[in-house]
Every structure is written in C-alpha cells, then in structure tokens.
C-alpha cells in the first residue's frame, strides 16, 4: 500500500462532501492492501449546516442557538437512513429531531 494510493482513493470517494466530516472505517491487511467504508456525515454536522450555526449550545435546555424545520429533519434522516437504527423515515426524523434538541436547536413544524 502506498500512502498516495490511499489518499487518492479517499479523496475520490469523499469529494462530494466538500469539507464535511465523514466517519470512515479503514481496514489495512498484512499485505499492505486496504479497504475503507465511508459512512454518512454525522447528524450534528448536517443539523449545524441546516440551522446555519457554527456549534451547538453548551446549555441546550436553556440556551437555544438555532432553528430547523421538521422537513429539514426529514431530509437529513433520508440522507442518514442507511446508518440509522430506524425502520421508517418518520422514526429516523424523530431521532434527528432529538439530536437537534440536544444541541439547543429548536424544531418547528
């Protein structure tokens, strides 16, 4: 395995995310070959982008830092559906709304 090969393969697979943090599972074998699996971006980073904020609240139950709509939460849930432990988009959207509330983001609608 050459580091340049890994970097090239990684950049090719993640170019559509343009600076968004992406969880990756990397496996390197004894013969120095590798494979990696990219996951969807974390819900928190997608929520921050949707709300237009830099970071969540330090005291989310008291200080609210932004607002997202239920439709935005459903859109994020559709992006993350493969990585979530939910049976339907509605359940996944509720999980995303819970993440938003824990970050101090109001959910409207």
TrEMBL record:
What keywords tag this UniProt record?
A: Methylation, Ribonucleoprotein, Ribosomal protein, RNA-binding, rRNA-binding
Name the SUPFAM superfamilies on file: Ribosomal L11/L12e N-terminal domain (SSF54747), Ribosomal protein L11, C-terminal domain (SSF46906)
- Source domain of life is Bacteria
Q: What start and end residues bound the annotated signal peptide?
A: none
Which GO cellular component does the record give, naming just one? Answer: cytosolic large ribosomal subunit
Can the keyword Methyltransferase be found in this entry's annotation?
Answer: no
GO MF entries:
large ribosomal subunit rRNA binding; structural constituent of ribosome
Biological process (GO) annotations? Answer: translation
> What sequence ranges are listed for the domain Large ribosomal subunit protein uL11 N-terminal?
2-34
Q: What does this protein do?
A: Forms part of the ribosomal stalk which helps the ribosome interact with GTP-bound translation factors.
What PANTHER family does this protein's entry cite?
A: 60S RIBOSOMAL PROTEIN L12, LARGE RIBOSOMAL SUBUNIT PROTEIN UL11M
On subunit structure and binding partners, the annotation says:
Part of the ribosomal stalk of the 50S ribosomal subunit. Interacts with L10 and the large rRNA to form the base of the stalk. L10 forms an elongated spine to which L12 dimers bind in a sequential fashion forming a multimeric L10(L12)X complex.
Q: Which HAMAP family match?
A: Ribosomal_uL11
Family indicated by similarity: Belongs to the universal ribosomal protein uL11 family.
Name of the molecule in the record: Large ribosomal subunit protein uL11
Q: Which organism is it from?
A: Rhodopirellula maiorica SM1
The gene that this protein is the product of is: rplK
């Amino acid at each position: 395995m050459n580091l340049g090969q890994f970097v090239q393969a990684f950049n090719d697979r993640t170019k559509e995310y343009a600076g968004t943090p992406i969880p990756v599972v990397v496996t390197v074998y004894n013969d120095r070959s590798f494979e990696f699996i990219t996951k969807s971006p974390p819900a928190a980073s997608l929520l921050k982008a949707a709300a237009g904020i830099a970071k969540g609240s330090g005291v989310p139950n008291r200080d609210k830092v932004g607002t997202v709509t239920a439709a935005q939460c459903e859109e994020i849930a559709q992006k993350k559906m493969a990585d979530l432990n939910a049976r339907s988009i509605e359940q996944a959207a509720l999980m995303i709304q819970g993440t938003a509330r824990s970050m101090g983001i109001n959910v409207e609608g």
